[in-house]
Specification:
Layout: H1 6-31, E1 37-41, E2 49-55, H2 65-78, E3 88-91, H3 95-107, E4 111-116, H4 121-129, E5 133-137, H5 143-154, E6 157-158, H6 161-168, H7 177-184, E7 195-198, H8 204-216, E8 221-227, H9 232-240, E9 274-278, H10 280-294, H11 300-318, E10 323-329, H12 343-349, H13 353-364, E11 376-377
Helix pairs in contact: 1-2, 2-3, 2-6, 3-4, 6-8, 10-11, 10-13
């Protein structure tokens, strides 16, 4: 008598064969792609401080989320959560959905993106280009619950980036973004960054960078820049003061791809050394500044990151420190032609473009301070927030 029923044996073998083939297909796709570039940007107002952008827009799907989508698919496959014909469902503001649609098509799986109705039409078109279907939700706070419902109804799998981003990424190696940054910095004047500046959508990037720096014994600090309508900063500030966090916002972030109405499980506060709160006006002014300096359009989240860079650079200059700062160029600006690069959008949103541009230009030239960004460090009370590269992790 066989140890297990033949039908079970054949089903198991078939599933393992499909999973192995799917993983090989994803790994082959990775081998066809070069790493993303590290682009320097000189800031004359900050001598001795070198700034670099990790350009994640050069991924096949055009954003930082390509790395996350790859990790989420490998994680789901290794866990046995996907099988032939599985409908993949994801809650996303757009970029993760674009990247997951790419990998779903690579594996021949149907994909449904549950996205806010405010998502840019360019992102919707990109999702559909890769074979995905968009399910629009009026209230951005409902995208996760709606994804759960759709996955249950289709018998599919909800990827749930906001829960699994930090654990799906292998932070020790496997060419994660942290490993790539530190390897590319090896020949630079200041090879170990004093700071890496990023922003939080899921929190997976800050967790990966913070963990990798600690694991490798680097003194690098992580600054997380949070957009105006996001709960991460208030959540972090409460934890830094030893208080319980019940942070929540009523309005969805206007900076697509980052900021959440409530803290997400993948945001690991212990991996972040300091946070700043950035107004949308400053984020988008910084976006326009970086666009002018690099000669090509970048997205709004890159602007949020750059405000964080200026905050750190000002602190380093004030203390007479030299060193390098690395930040993330999250995606290109082509996806925001209807909004961030449309004057009518600013008028409708009531954003004073000229005033914000003056603030960022003065700060970048070293001629003017940034407004209070509500800095908070996990090493000290919120009101102190030294943002010193010398603080112990």
């Amino acid at each position: 008598m066989p140890f297990i029923d033949d039908s079970i044996h054949h089903a198991c073998c078939g599933h393992h064969a499909w999973t192995s083939a799917a993983i090989r297909r994803i790994e082959a796709d990775f081998n066809r792609s070069a790493d993303t570039h590290l682009v320097p940007l000189a800031l004359p107002g900050f001598p001795g401080v070198d700034v670099y952008f990790k350009d994640e827009s050069s991924h096949p799907t055009g954003s930082l989320k390509h790395r996350l989508a790859r990790s989420l698919f490998l994680y789901a496959l290794a866990n046995g959560w996907l099988h032939p014909g599985s409908t993949v469902v994801e809650a996303s503001s757009g970029s993760t959905a674009v990247s997951e649609a790419y990998f779903a098509r690579l594996l021949g799986l149907p994909f449904v993106a549950v996205i806010p109705s405010s998502t840019s039409p360019e992102k919707v078109a990109a999702i559909e280009f890769h074979g995905g279907r968009c399910h629009l939700v009026r209230d951005a706070r409902d995208i996760a619950s709606e994804s759960v419902r759709l996955a249950r109804e289709t018998g599919g799998h909800f990827m749930d980036q906001f829960t699994y981003a930090e654990r799906a990424t292998d932070w020790r190696a496997n060419n994660n973004i942290a490993e790539s940054i530190f390897r590319q910095m090896e020949q630079e004047p200041h090879p170990v960054p004093a700071w890496v500046v990023c922003s939080a959508g899921t929190g997976g990037t800050s967790a990966t960078i913070g963990r990798y720096a600690s694991y490798r014994g680097f003194p690098t600090r992580v600054l997380c820049a949070d957009p105006e309508h996001s709960a991460f900063h208030a959540h972090y500030a409460a934890l830094a003061q030893g208080a319980h966090s019940a942070a929540v916002t009523r309005q969805a972030s206007r900076i697509e791809g980052i900021g959440r109405p409530t803290p997400e499980p993948s945001f690991i506060a212990g991996c972040v050394d300091a946070m700043v709160k950035v107004s949308d006006a400053l984020s988008l002014a910084a976006m326009r500044y970086v666009t002018r300096r690099l000669g090509r359009r970048v997205g709004g989240s890159t602007g949020t990151n750059f405000v964080g860079v200026l905050r750190v650079a000002q602190g380093m200059r004030a203390r007479g420190e030299t060193g390098s700062i690395v930040t993330i160029l999250c995606d290109g600006g082509e996806r925001y032609a209807h909004s961030y690069y449309n004057p009518d959008w600013y008028a409708a949103e009531g954003i004073d473009v000229e005033a914000a541009d003056r603030v960022i230009a003065a700060a970048a030239d070293g001629d003017g301070p940034l407004p209070d960004l509500s800095p908070v460090s996990r090493h000290s009370p919120a009101q102190a927030a030294p943002l010193s590269a010398g603080a112990a992790r």
